[in-house]
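Margin note: ligand = adenosine-5'-diphosphate.
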Amino acid sequence: MRKSLYLKFVLAYIIFGVFAFIIVSIFVPTMTQEHLIREKAGNLYSEAVLIADTYASGLYTSETSLETVKMQLDSLAVYLKANIRIINPSGRLVLDTNTPLNVEEVVVIEDFDPSTTAGSYYMVDDFFGNFESDVLTVLAPIISNYKIKGYVAIHSDMSVITESCNSLLNISYITLVILLLLSLIILIFFTDIVYVPLRKITYATEQYASGNMHYEFQIDSEDEMGYLAACLNFMANEIAGAEDDQKKFVANVSHDFRSPLTSIHGYVTAMLDGTIPPEQYEKYLNIVQNETDRLIKLTNSLLTLNNLNTKGMLLDRTDFDINKVIRNTAASFEGTCRQKTMAIELVLTGDTFYVNADMGKIQQVLYNLIDNAIKFSHPDSVIKIETSEKKNKLFVSVKDTGIGIPKEDLKLIWDRFYKSDSSRGKDKKGTGLGLSIVKEIINSHNEHINVISTPGEGSEFIFSLSETDEEDED
Ligand code: ADP
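Resulting structure:
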């Protein structure tokens, strides 16, 4: 089974929580306790040095009596919540704020060796086996006449430090809980902002993958998720549209192939079974020829459209003289024009005019437009091809005075297989593909084509082309 993204996030959250707890419960207490001990030791040491310099040294110079010093140190010990002692270098206890003064009794601290504290001004231990549990001890020497006469030792019970350490740790634990709760909020936000939309998107893509292109879903956020969802919806709509177009296209192609084939089949069968007598063969063979012409034209147009679609923007752009191309294309309609007693009038800008485009394809555009103009014009009329230049663009217009296009058809004429009802009667050979080829070609050149038409008066098709950078006359 796939591992859910959500599960991974929950797992990451739990790991984060466990690690945070381990850090807070192991490292933070040690660090806090060390800090508190150092701070307390610093304070006690200053006091010890002060006592060594004042009361204690006075004791050794016999300036003050033992009783006075004891009294003063007793009250100081209460204030410091500690035990203050004065110890001789040999380890003999001179004064202890925890026990009453007794000159008779000689108390000696076994193994007393002040040098063990060398390098540190405090120690945490049982003070040479003198206490049952660990105490914090600071030791300050009492110096008189450059000699160490004794030591001031201040012992503080570790429970005081542990107590303040615990209250500080409580703060850390509360902070940890707050942090975990806050990150839980992030997890909830993540679920709502990322996970739920992602689930919707995944489900939608599964639907699209299984072919349900009409599946619609909505994500109402204006972030990347919302954008992704909108893009997916758009993509699915486009694909669904393309599928519908494809179906329509195949239906149209089949229809347009079937009618000529049916009539060819009908006439040939009738000739073979004798329904059509041999003396009428010529008439019906002409019809068959016309139908095959139509089929060839249809096939060629389909191939052209297919090439335009698959090759897309692949244009063989060159600089060429558009006037020459217009003249040649118009000349190729001479025979057709003669049959309909029509004329083509050319009004061209300059003798030569160079444009940058795919010559073959532009020739095809001109051919299709002139072909339509002739098809939909009345006999004895004139077709006018005119060029005009404006802001580095050349506009080519193919204008006829034919049947025109109804207003409601103007948008549809560019669609594949579109033939207006009025044209169907007049132009049996029409495929309805000519103008869609024209549009594809002009669009792939990043140019524009427009039509102005009035039913009964005529139509004008105008398209633009880009002038070449440097005009090359030859
Ligand atoms: P076809 O000419 O093969 O029918 P087109 O795509 O070239 O296909 O044209 C589509 C339709 O546009 C035509 O059937 C016709 O109704 C209309 N049309 C195109 N050109 C003209 C024109 N010059 N005058 C009137 N109608 C036109």
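The radius of gyration is 53 Å.
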